[in-house]
Design brief:
mainly alpha
C-alpha cells in the first residue's frame, strides 16, 4: 500500500511539474521544469510498466537536455563585435 502511494505521488508530481513548466515565460525555466517532470514520468512509467509513457518522456527529456545545452553554449560564448 505504501509503495502504491509513493508511486502515485511521483505521477501526480510529474503532472504538476509539466503543467507548471508550460506556464513559464523564460524558456530556460520551461526546459528545466519540463525535464524534471519528464524524468518523474519516466520513473512512474517504468514502475507501473507503462513503457510508452516511459519511452516518450525519456525522449522529451533528451530534447530538453539538448536545448538546455544549446542555450547554455549560446550564453557562454563571448559577444562578437564588428
Amino acid at each position: 500500500m505504501e509503495a502504491t502511494n509513493t508511486i502515485e505521488i511521483i505521477g501526480y508530481s510529474a503532472s504538476v511539474m509539466v503543467a507548471i513548466s508550460l506556464m513559464m515565460k523564460d524558456i530556460t525555466w520551461l526546459r528545466c521544469l519540463n525535464f524534471t517532470g519528464c524524468t518523474l514520468f519516466v520513473i512512474y512509467g517504468v514502475y507501473i510498466s507503462a513503457w510508452p509513457v516511459a519511452g516518450m518522456n525519456a525522449f522529451v527529456a533528451c530534447i530538453n537536455i539538448y536545448h538546455l545545452i544549446k542555450i547554455y553554449r549560446t550564453r557562454s560564448q563571448p559577444a562578437v563585435t564588428a
